[in-house]
Design goal:
The complex is a heterodimer of chains A (372) and B (350). Chain A has helices spanning 6-33, 38-49, 52-77, 85-102, 107-136, 140-158, 199-217, 219-229, 231-236, 241-258, 261-268, 279-289, 294-311, 322-371, and strands at 188-189, 196-197. Chain A has 14 helices and two strands. Chain A has a two-stranded antiparallel ribbon with strand order 1-2. With 372 residues, chain A is mainly alpha-helical. In chain A, helix 3 packs across helix 13 (294-311). In chain A, strand 1 (188-189) and strand 2 (196-197) form a beta hairpin. Chain B has two domains: 7-145 and 284-308, Rossmann fold; 147-281 and 319-340, Response regulator (Rossmann fold). Chain B is built from eleven helices and twelve strands. In chain B, strand 1 (41-45), helix 2 and strand 2 form a beta-alpha-beta unit. In chain B, helix 3 (86-98) crosses helix 4 (112-118) and helix 5 (147-161) runs parallel beside helix 6 (176-192). The N and C termini of chain B lie far apart (68 Å). Classes of the chains: A mainly alpha (372), B alpha/beta (350). At the A-B interface, helix 3, helix 6, helix 7, helix 11 and helix 13 of A face helix 1, strand 2 and helix 3 of B.
Chain lengths: 372, 350
Amino acid sequence: MKKFDKDRIVLGFAGPVLALVVAFALTTVVLLISNRDPFELYRLLFEQASYSDVQVLIVNQAGTYYLAALAVAIGFRMNLFNIGVDGQYRLAAMMAALVGASVDLPGPLQIFLIVIVAMLVGAFWAGIAGFLKTTRGVSEVVATIMLNSIATSLIAWLILPKNFGEQAAGSNNLTTGDIPESGWFPGLSLGAEAGEIYGFTFVAAGCGLVYWFVLNRTRFGFDLRATGASESAAQASGVDAKKMILTSMLISGAVAGLAGMPTLLGDTHTYSLDFPVGIGFTGITIALLGRNHPVGIALSALLIAFLDKASSSLDQFGFEKEIATIMQGLIVISVVISYELVRRYGTRRQQQKVGEELAAGHALTTEKEAAL
Amino acid sequence: MRRITRIATVGVMSAALALSVSACGESSSSSTSTTDSKADKTAIAYDIGGRGDQSFNDAAYAGLARAQKDLGVKGTEAEPSEGESDADKVQRLTSLARAGNNPVIGVGFAYAPAIKKVAPKFPKTTFGIIDDASVTGANIANIVFNEEQGSYLAGVAAAKVTKTKTVGFIGGVETPLIKKFQAGFQQGVKDTDPSVKVLPQYLTQPPNFDGFSKPDLGKAAAQGQLDKGADVVYSAAGLAGSGAIEAVSKAGKWNIGVDSDQYQQEGLAAYKESILTSVTKDVEDSVLNLIKSVQDGKPQSGEVRYGLAKDGVGLAMSNPAFTKMTDVIAAVDKAKKEIVDGTITVKTTP
């Protein structure tokens, strides 16, 4: 078994830590320039995060982000950029809500059905991009962006009252009807004050385990990573690259389909005009920040969720809550730069080490030769 | 070894996810108890877009600002974040209510599910919701408007004024609410002159709410309608409508504004001559009235409807060019009378 590699771990942590430090420093500068007290802001953020109801919001949001980021990460591992997670999860949530509201099965079956529908719809929507890429060579970036817009229009059409939508009397909202109680995913209640952690948050954590296992401990995962690293090399060693592209797109879409489930099954029980949007894009940030590693993604999902939720009441204390958006933006920029810096440093260090070893080895042999 | 550490990290991570919450007991609102009960406090929670949207949210703010000035209440505002869920709205309303704000007003129908959950927990607090009548309760005031009635009058005016027998309707985002504007406008046009053609167009579909905020979208849509021969364009599109107003004004055609009297809006002063009239929706007064009713100890509850009868919606009469058209004004006044006495029923869906 491989030796515990200290260097690798230190370097692995150096990237994110450097990024966060830089991001915080830059945020402080931004705040100072705009005449705000940065320490008061940080104090407020942490004070907010110490409240139990805000913590529940953070954890629930992190679960949702985690699923979206996993979907993106599967694509990244394969060198595919699935920007379409946003459209995939919205369409999936909408279709799943429709099916859930129109059938009434006993408890677990109902939930199972809703989740399966969501995964299938997500996989189908991502599969279109995968199919276009494998058969016609269309860039998945372009295809998924376009599919996002198409999903928006499709949902807007499907949710019209004359099609599948419902408009409650006196309401200006459109919904897909309510999912019967058998389809509500039980949550973990932490008391009336704090609220409830969505049960699906734990499913999200489970998905992280599965992601790690499949990628690192199965043949499929190896093929996937190999194709991501070099398509031609993988092909030469007998991996069907086209099949891998389509499969990973389908899996990415299926996981994306899950991203709407915590909210749908745990809270709203219907898809309405104000269903959360944009989670797919936040997922890209999180996957990038977490370096496609299941634990890294979890930590960054928590970080982004923390910034989102802790900042939401900042405007009551005289700060603009958009500061959190600035912080997130700065974090992303710092991450990209610092990962590259750390990578270069790592490579140089490795080269140096190898060079030293070679030199030492050479010295050794020459000594031996001399002794002979 | 490495494998074990990694499995352990994943395990610890999921455990931390589960346990991080149970560590702290205090909730965000339990610490902020009402200390200054003397000064009346009131809060409004905005819809997406927030303050500065030149439209709906701003009108609600104007109501709050007047309440602060005239009634001496202390106002708190809270804005939503993009992509938030109902849970966030529940948390926002709960903390506002616990902080002693009364009334707590949710601006926009998106607050309905949250108010349904929060209102029963604070029976002594009045919750106002604008544009929704689906959630009801003893302490919930549903402020709704008959947008279709005001739009009907706009339709009457447009049908009278048009020379090309073609008028345009630009809706911001295709939601049931904006469809009420379209329905009233179309009916008003058809009832006045069946030969006039209405060109309806929406800028975006939900959940893309750019149609309320991006003037370039409104400008392009108005351009298209002008090309098709429209000479009166009614834009119910919030800030995006200002783009339409610009395009129509430059073409020398008539605009009909929305929500507030846009003839008098400073930002549109350059185009004011082209703004024939505006369909007003008095969100400002509705907010003020609700705050006042709570202060007087007789809080509004149930459906509070603002229609033509109470001047909650109406047609602005500030452009002298419009008021000079006596035959148009007469037709509008006649239609208004007939709507108020029930002779005309205006549809809410096109």
